[in-house]
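Hi R.,

Here's the chain you asked about this morning:
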Amino acid sequence: MSFVARAARTWPATRWSRIVITLLAALVALTVLTLAQDASASPELSTARLVEEQVPNPVEFIDTFNNNKLTGWSHIDQQGTTGASRWAASNRVVRQTRGIYGGATSRATIGKPGTVLVSGDPAWANIDYSVTASTSDNDGIGVVFHYQDENNYERFSMDSQRHYRRLVKKVDGTFTTLAETDAGYRPGTRYRIRVMSVGSSISIYLNGSLVMQAVDDPPATGKVGLYTWGSSSTTFDGVKVQAQSDDFFTIAVVPDTQFESARSPGVLVAQTKWLVTHRATERIAMVMQEGDIVNDMRSTTQWANARSGFAYLDGKVPFVAAAGNHDEEILSRPPPRFKYPGRYNDFIDSFADYNDTGRYRTGDYRNTYRLFSAGGVDMMVLNLDFGARDDVLAWAGGVVDRYPHRHVMLLTHDYLGTDGNLRGTTNPDDGTLPHNHNPAWNDGVQMWEKFVRRHANVQFTFNGHVIQTLSPDKPWSVARLVSPNDAGRSVYQTLTNYQTFEGGSQGYLRLFRFQRAPGVVQVRTYSPSLDASLTDDGNQFSYTSVDLGAW
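And the predicted structure, written out as tokens:
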């Protein structure tokens, strides 16, 4: 029972008491109305449970700015503005600290040219875009989306001084108001701005509450961005976009980086910066590094070089890095060798946004799995240690059986050889085989027999490590093998390693483009540092008739 109702029962029915009760009721009603109006201004007050249309078959684009880098973003000070903006990433947010603006200052003028920071794919159509924004100022802040150029985009903005929230569309230089309300924002309050644009419908949410809807006809396409008009000391963080991608998504593979970390750190930086810059247009859902991050696990300098390179990915592209023998073994010691994973674990732990779904051992990143979905395909990266032991393989079997609908990608340092055979099938005296480092460690052929073939949803394997080149004129170690598992499903197994190039790996990456509907995985090999591709049959090919449907 409410306070007002209890008062009505217990207070004398005098004229004075009736007046007090009436005033209390009005006060309660006003408080409820105020709370409802301010629900969008305070995250803890937002309790709306919304049933909404979802973006189908999305690929995720994120930026936490936790690495304090703006890689992949471009700023534009719009036509008619005075002065220059100052966008910078620091303290794990992006800031715009100058009150740049143009045009008339009246509320009625809808153009409001300011400054924008944009990123993404010009082809994005259906999107679910959100970012957290805050300012101590009282002028215009917001977001742009479906951004093609300065004359074609959509924008949601809000202004505290002029007391409006406004959704506009600019086509060929002409603005149209799609929706507007008489509400602004509270300076100093954090707002989670969310734009849901599906088909011809646009919905705007603030801190979980629906505040605006409009029809966008015809629907637009384009990038996303951040916007300020006259507002200084503005911060943005936690960018997240779910963009529909029916046609393809990409898994990027970074082969052994030990020589880059040892003597060519600029090549590694070129690789990771390229991946971040092109993560939207390539629709990169995951980056996988195949181990041997460094050449000597005892070298502090090599770990620092590796961290400087991989820092570009942190908080921008999900990545998983395998532990190679050079990352955890002292190779100068005779067999049987033992593993010292401390430096590897410290390296992984240094990244603010490195995530996994589960681990074999608490505090150890060597044997982990990560669930993700892209383009309508539910997947898992299973990251296993070099020469994974029987107990690790048993754990891995339990993990993949727990998620039978997931398409599993096994990432491990050593598995397939350049002869197209599972490692250990031939030349068992090869000193680089795991079992010759320690008899308890499994070679590729044992991993197949004990784990891969026995589990129906293990569909892909990826490894590096091998340094036997194909021929003098093909100074790389690549191979592929397609084998049926015990359930009759094909397993697509790929070796990728370029460290045997003279002078190092030359920075080549492998890009696996997954096309769900035709069941094709296209593979290409590209070096950002050389801006060159390898186009021979061993480096540019396709897996066909790949089952990427629901399991």
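Residues 1-51 have pLDDT under 50 and may be disordered.

Let me know if you need anything else.
M.
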